[in-house]
Design goal:
nine-stranded mixed β-sheet, about 10% strand, HAD-like_sf, transmembrane helix, transmembrane, ATP hydrolysis activity
Length: about 1100
């Protein structure tokens, strides 16, 4: 690595792309600390100490008491909290003000920290420092137990349960006259339900955090450290003060370090810490006495966006600036996912309906029943009935199932080596319809190798060049080959691991960019690199940039004139070239004919082999020619500028073609994405013919597909009607009707594979109009070549503007802006630390096929949640609210008690609803089009028709049939005597006593309860599939088995026996013994539900455009 002297002043470089949003509070505290440190000298010490603030701080016992009894006004509390915050800031500022690491000289720093720039730290010293400073990790945020307990017990639906509990308690005493123990028992039961749900929330929060921590620990993160005289890769947690750390583009700063060597183009992104969106140049000398503002410090959390540097660790863990500020701010609240918001909206809607219905029942009692039928319903009965509707109307298992579904999918993705950093990503993946991916490392294997070499009058295979021209020393190389070798070996940022020197060069692992690694291997094969290290000295390096598309190095043989070596894209360097070397080593003027030959060679290699082609150049100065580099040989900063200004009159020494084979699985992966209605766009910095060839290799462009360019885009933009008509026949609308299994295979073939693909270069994207971007967004396949990071960001934003849900893959720091702008940023596991940090998802195996698994998992979670809701709603809504309606409006004794409704809601239905979240897909979800998250939510009109208009009606009729049949069989009471009974249902009615009537109602209510439980068994199988026959979704064996689902049957039977057969529950909660025949009478109705549902699914499959298919959920 070439390390240069630094600039003497602070320089800020505008950043044209978006940076990661910092934590606003972290950024605010950073700037507050900076200001306090900066003006410390101007303030008197007495003012800094602010003794008057101590009077504002309450004693500890008063702070605790103030949580219960407000001893201060709100203004006083806020003022006291602000003063405490300022005191904490002042303490941190005073601590940072004492630090002198940025002001000390480099040698003094080495002495102070007891380290060496040659050896680094030794093992014994590392162990001592670990004992003193601990591990390089930040302390976790405070637990905030008070807020957690409040969230578990008093938020969500629990708020209404507390209200219901109070009402039931009041209905027992003092409203109850006489007091009814059942109301008191219901209050106790509701308290138990609240505690059970709170305990589950706490347990689930712990399980989720542990699961996310376990998969986050799979993310590979390393730092290059000098220890015992050797560079080695270590986990950042192992760093200690005094370690020498090497950083390069894409690395994340692992601790607070003082820069001791920097490249001239070093840029540090501190946006996460300071909130400043622009990167700043790193320097050797201090640029400010303020510890937080100087440019010779790199703080933990910063990113190296360009260049290279070496630094000495001065602080780790909580002693870093990030650690100190982290103790001043609270952790960010967990962001709710769209599905969580949607489920909460559904729960709120159901709660509103239940409140309205419960209020209506109470009003009907107050204005009608109380006067028209006195004695039919007491005040306590009316209140208990109204509140009972609120308690039982909302499915209690729904929030639980949502959380479990997300966690289950996250664990499923973990098995496939997919790291998901937050649950929001899981659901967003299911809606992705465009993937913008890089070529190198994503579509290809990143096993780049040199395959062809070209000169002015000859081209040959790289293997032949090595076989004919290899030499043990540089002097032994032929003149033309020597010039090529110098560019390959010296204009290169990759390095070999010295411990692997015994391995053949073509098999040796190199560290660095894939292109540089390939060129380094070729150079080693021509002549050992140690010969070049002895012979040449590197004076300055201008690293490769996608914006410039070239790399430059200034070198010199010892005691000789410096010369320039350049490599890069031919179209970027050829305009600066005036000479070319021949195979013999002779240098001739670069004529138009030779220029065309080079361009033809590049085009041919790209179109026939998909090779990445680089132009190798040099510029040397004769003795009688002024050498602008000579005067600045001892001034790296000046040499840096002079070399860039001297980029003219270059001599072409050769062309090199690099091949990178596509991944073995990529063609099948592209086919799978196409079948799923997902378009794959290639966004690369490579030459357009190279990118097109690789796109054909990967199956993105078929042999029969016509390739269009920017001219056709402009033509489509001028004819929007024709273009939109073509789009309507395309992938999405053509697949919208693919709802049934029989059409899935046909639909998977009805893509736009035969439609023209688009290949466009970055220069052609300039000044495009809105209509032209509309045309680009309608193509099935797009290849964007010679793209800069800004243009890649532009592509993503234009696609998002047109309603696409975009996922962007990347592995380098240049990919980060586009990854952050996309709906889902996906990093490769072998990519840079900055890319992995910026991404919401990491493919640990670096395979695009894993992304297909993630998208399938996101779709599966959404489908399974719909199944859970379709299972819960018919029972918890219609089947339970109708009995209350009959009781209030039609004068029936209540057919199903509030207690038994609560048992169904919180016990018998919960197991099946949870297990349904683990269902395997009934068909290949990657044969369906992506979901439009705006238009297709969890529930809609068709969903409610299925839940209430079909399943709910059948279950309600079955439950009431069991109720009336039990009254008739056990008490001889016909239904006509039950309807409109109102206050007649008392002593002497039909010759029965009040106790006998109550016993019959309790028994019939329990029969009603058992009928609903059995009907839910059938509904459980109904909900497993949306349009596939239940017989093809076997729960016991096969790829879609779910044997835990059947466990719900014995659980529900046991629950029914427990609450209905034990005398204590009969006496307190007014349940009854279930007649034995009512364990079997509902079974035919359950089979009828299954039969009708099978018939509906059959008609949907057979008539996919019929009315049943259109209203199918």
């Amino acid at each position: 690595m070439n390390i240069q002297a630094a600039h003497k002043r602070s320089v800020t470089v505008p950043n044209p792309v978006r940076q990661r949003r910092s934590n606003p509070r972290t950024a605010a505290e950073f700037h507050t600390l900076s200001l306090q440190i900066g003006d410390a000298a101007a303030r008197p010490a007495s003012r800094r100490q602010r003794p008057q603030e101590k009077a504002l701080k309450l004693p500890r016992w008063k702070e605790v008491l103030n949580l219960l009894l407000p001893l201060q006004t709100a203004h006083q509390q806020r003022e006291a909290e602000e003063k405490q915050r300022e005191e904490a800031l002042l303490k941190v500022a005073d601590d940072l003000r004492q630090l002198r690491f940025h002001l000390d000289t480099v040698n003094d720093l080495y002495v102070q920290l007891g380290t060496s720039p040659i050896v680094g730290l030794e093992r014994a010293g590392v162990q001592r420092r670990k004992g003193t400073y601990g591990r390089n990790v930040l302390s976790p945020p405070p637990r905030q137990w008070a807020q957690r307990v409040w969230r578990w017990f008093f938020t969500g639906f629990n708020r209404f349960l507390w209200v219901a509990m109070v009402v039931f308690w009041l209905c027992w005493k003092p409203i109850g006259n006489p007091p009814q123990s059942g109301n008191m028992a219901m209050a106790v039961v509701i308290i138990l339900v609240i505690f059970l749900q709170a305990m589950f929330s706490a347990w689930q929060e712990w399980i989720t955090s542990r699961a996310m921590h376990s998969i986050t620990s799979m993310l590979p993160t390393e730092a290059t450290v000098l220890r015992d005289g050797r560079r080695r890769k270590l986990a950042p947690e192992e760093l200690v003060p005094g370690d020498i750390v090497y950083l390069q583009t894409g690395d994340r700063v692992p601790a607070d370090i003082r820069l001791v060597e920097v490249s001239l183009d070093l840029l540090l992104d501190r946006s996460e810490l300071s909130g400043t969106p622009d990167p700043t140049i790193g320097t050797l000398g201090y640029t400010s006495t303020n510890y937080l503002e100087t440019r010779n410090m790199a703080m933990m959390g910063a990113n190296v966006t360009q260049g290279q540097c070496v630094g000495v660790v001065v602080a780790t863990g909580d002693r870093t600036v990030l650690g100190r500020i982290g103790r001043l701010v609270t952790s960010k609240q967990t962001e709710r996912t769209l599905l969580q918001i949607e489920v909460q909206r559904l729960v709120n809607w159901l709660t509103s309906v239940s409140l309205a219905v419960g209020t209506l029942f109470i009003v009907l009692w107050a204005v009608w029943l109380r006067t028209e039928f006195p004695g039919f319903m007491s005040v306590s009965d009316a209140l208990a009935n109204g509140v009972g509707v609120l308690v039982t109307f909302v499915p209690g298992g729904l929030p639980i199932s949502l959380t479990l579904a997300m966690t289950a999918i996250a664990k499923r993705m973990q098995r496939y080596r997919l790291l998901v950093k937050n649950l929001t990503t899981v659901e967003t993946l299911g809606t992705v319809d465009v993937i913008c991916c890089e070529k190198t490392g994503t579509l290809t294997q990143r096993l780049m190798a040199a395959v062809r070499i070209g000169m002015g009058d000859e081209e040959l295979a790289a293997t032949k060049l090595v076989a004919d021209c290899e030499a043990p020393t540089v002097d032994g190389l032929q003149p033309a080959v020597r010039r090529i070798y110098e560019v390959l070996a010296l204009c290169n940022s990759a390095v070999f691991d010295p411990l692997l020197a015994h391995i053949p060069a073509d098999e040796r692992v190199a560290m660095g960019d894939a292109t540089d690694c390939a060129l380094l291997r070729l150079a080693e094969q021509l002549c050992p690199l140690r010969q070049a290290e002895k012979r040449y000295k590197t004076l300055v390096t201008v690293p490769f940039s996608l914006r410039r598309r070239w790399m430059l190095t200034v070198c010199a043989e010892y005691q000789k004139e410096p010369f320039m070596l350049v490599k890069g894209a031919p179209e970027a360097l050829l305009p600066h070239c005036g000479w070319i070397q021949m195979r013999s080593g002779a240098v001739e003027p670069l004529t138009d004919e030779l220029r065309e030959r080079l361009e033809e060679m590049q085009r041919r290699w790209a179109e026939t082999n998909g090779s990445r082609v680089l132009l190798l150049c040099r510029r040397e100065f004769s003795n009688d020619e002024h050498n602008p580099l000579r005067a600045h040989a001892d001034s790296p900063a000046a040499l840096y500028i002079a070399s860039r200004d001297a980029l003219e009159g270059l001599c072409v020494v050769g062309l090199v073609a690099l091949a990178d084979p596509p991944r073995e699985e990529i063609a099948d992966t592209i086919v799978r994405f196409r079948g799923a209605g997902i378009r794959v766009f290639m966004v690369t910095g490579d030459y357009a013919p190279t990118a097109t060839f690789v796109a054909r290799q990967c199956g993105m462009i078929s042999d029969t597909t016509a390739v269009e360019g920017i001219a056709e885009v402009r033509l489509h933009a001028k004819e929007p009607a024709m273009h939109s008509a073509k789009a309507e026949k395309g992938h999405y609308k053509g697949r919208a009707g693919c709802q049934t299994e029989s059409l899935l295979e046909a639909c998977s073939e009805s893509t736009l594979a035969g439609r023209a693909a688009l290949v466009v270069s970055g220069d052609e994207l300039l000044d495009l109009q809105t209509e032209e971007w509309d045309a680009i967004a309608a193509y099935e396949t797009c290849v964007f070549a010679r793209i800069t990071p800004e243009q890649k960001l532009q592509v993503v934003e234009e696609l998002r503007t047109r309603g696409c849900t975009v996922a962007v893959t990347g592995d380098e720091v240049n990919d980060v802006p586009a990854m952050r702008a996309a709906h889902v940023g996906v990093a490769m596991g072998n990519g840079s630390a900055v890319a992995r940090e910026a991404a919401e998802m990491v493919l640990l195996d670096s395979s695009l096929a894993s992304l297909a698994v993630g998208i399938e998992s996101g779709r599966l979670m959404f489908i399974n949640l719909k199944k859970v809701i379709i299972y819960l709603l018919p029972m918890t809504n219609l089947s339970e609210i109708i009995p209350s309606f009959f009781n209030v409006v039609l004068g029936l004794p209540i057919p199903l008690s509030t207690f038994l409704m609560l048992v169904i809601n919180t016990i018998t239905d919960v197991w099946a609803s949870v297990v349904l979240t683990y269902e395997e897909p009934e068909t290949d979800l990657m044969l369906h089009p992506p979901r439009n998250s705006v238009k297709e939510g969890l529930v809609n009109t068709r969903f409610f028709v299925q839940a209430y208009g079909f399943i709910g009606i059948i279950e309600t009729l079955t439950g009431h049939f069991a109720f009336f049949l039990c009254l008739y069989l056990r008490g001889g009471i016909a239904p006509r005597h039950v309807f409109l009974a109102f206050n007649k249902w008392t002593d002497g009615y039909l010759g029965k006593t009040k106790d006998e009537l109550a016993l019959l109602v309790n028994m019939a209510g329990s029969a009603h309860f058992m009928a609903l439980v059995i009907m839910q068994w059938a509904n459980m199988f109904v909900a497993r599939t949306r349009f596939v026959s239940v017989f093809r979704q076997n729960p016991l064996w096969g790829p879609r088995r779910n044997p835990l689902l059947l466990v719900s049957i014995p659980i529900s039977v046991a629950v029914a026996l427990f609450f209905n057969e034990i005398d204590w529950f009969n006496n307190v909660f007014l349940t009854g013994k279930i007649p034995v025949e009512f364990f079997f009478l509902p079974i035919p109705f359950a089979l009828l539900l299954l039969t009708l549902e099978e018939l509906r699914k059959l008609l949907v499959r057979r008539y996919p455009n019929g009315i049943l298919a259109r209203i199918a959920w």
